[in-house]
Every structure is written in structure tokens, then in C-alpha cells.
Amino acid sequence: MTDHNGQWDWNRILLFLLEHVLQKIATIRPPTYILGEEIPGWRWEQNRSFSTKSAYEFLSTSEDLGVDFNWSKIWSLKLRQHVKVFTWLAAHDRLLSNAERFLRHLSTSDRCPFCQSNSETTDHILRHCSTVVANWIVVIEPNRISEFFQLLFNSWLQVNIIGGHQFAKNKDNWGERFVVYIWMLWKNRCSRIFNEDFIQRGDFRLLCDKLFEENVTV
Q1: CA pair distance 78, 75, nearest whole angstrom
Q2: Segment 9-54, tens digit of pLDDT
Q3: DSSP track, 98-138
Q4: How far, CA to CA in Å, does 21 sit from each of 82, 146, 167, 176, 205?
Q5: Per the database record, which ranges form the Reverse transcriptase zinc-binding domain (predicted)?
Q6: What local confidence, expressed as pLDDT, does residue 127 receive?
Q7: Is residue 216 classed as helix, strand or coil in its secondary structure?
Q8: pTM of this structure
Q9: In this structure, are residues 62 and 54 in contact, taking their beta carbons and an 8 Å threshold?
Q10: 86 vs 92: CA distance, rounded Å
Q11: In whole angstroms, what separates CA 64 from the centre of its chain?
Q12: Nearest Cα residue to 27 out of 97, 123, 124, 117
């Protein structure tokens, strides 16, 4: 399932597998004899060897989402399960962004492949990339745009999912609609990277509203 350059042949793989499986495959380097045998290593040390010092530093500086984030609200959203799982991954900063791939030594750069101006974090993909800002401006109240973009990422997610209708032009079911919006932004990002023939057709807001109708549950 690799192409003539030794990379995953996404044009073939996309035909047979679900999105969550594709995301897992994307974290794995294609098989090659040149790189030799793969050996697991500790990601927080340059020599890839475990140390209690680096483990303590990581744990002491990590954000405790379990305290601040209302997990029950995510799982109670009236959306299909795979959309809620995506939201959980985004809140934990576990989407396979270039920043994450760079940390895993799966990429030589953490830069955004589209704007090239910043590290491609989850926040960058879903909110700050120049290719997505215009999509948010369409659906956010003009007098709240500045606040919408200035909130810390975890606060931004929580406020909009739990009760951020003050930001939205269309306030009906905003928590669910917001989740569908960020899900759509992620899907677009992956399609643009893995499908060279991808073209965004139609109004982004209307496409998201259609997805919302398709994925909302009762």
C-alpha cells in the first residue's frame, strides 16, 4: 500500500478504511529497509532514554484537563459517537497535527503545511490558521470576534461546547454546531493533505449545517 516513492499510497488507502483508522496509519512510517529496525524510545529525552527527571518535568508542566473540562458535557452532546470521540481527542491535544508528528519524529518540521507561519498545533488547525479564520468570521458575532480568538485554547473549547452561544450568530444548538464546525475543519485539513485532488465545494457554513443535521441524534 505504498507508492513508488515509498510513502503511503493515500489514493488507494482512502477507498477502503475509516477516518480513525487512517489517522492511526498516518502515525506509522511506511516500511523501509533504509531506516533499519524501529526501536521504541522516550520522547522527552534527546537520547531517547527514560529518565525520572524528564518524566517529572513533563508531569509537572502538563495541563490537567480532567479538573477544568466538563467531560460529561462532551459525552452528552447530541451527536454521533465518532464526532464526540474527535472532540475528546481535540480537548486532549491528541490530534495528529504536524506539531505532534514532529514530537514523535514522524516529520522533519512542525510547521503548518498551508500558511507556513506557525507550528501546526491543534489550536492552530482549528482556530488560528489563516485558511480557517474566515470560516469563523462568518458564524461569529462581529462584536465577539476578538474575544473568540483570544481565549486560551482549553477555555475556548469549553466555553463554546458548554454554553458559548454568546459568540454565535446562529445560537440554536451552538454547542453541537461548534463541535461539527471544528470536526469539519479537521476533515478539510486531512483531505487537503492526503487527497491532492481535494477541492472545497460550497459554502463552509452551509456544509457544516448539513453535517450537523446528518450527525445530530435524538
Answers
A1: 8
A2: 777 777 677 666 766 676 676 766 555 555 666 766 777 787 777 7
A3: HHHHHHTTS-S--B-TTT-SSB--HHIIIIISTTTHHHHHH
A4: 12, 37, 34, 24, 27
A5: 50-136
A6: 93
A7: strand
A8: 0.66
A9: no
A10: 10
A11: 19
A12: 97
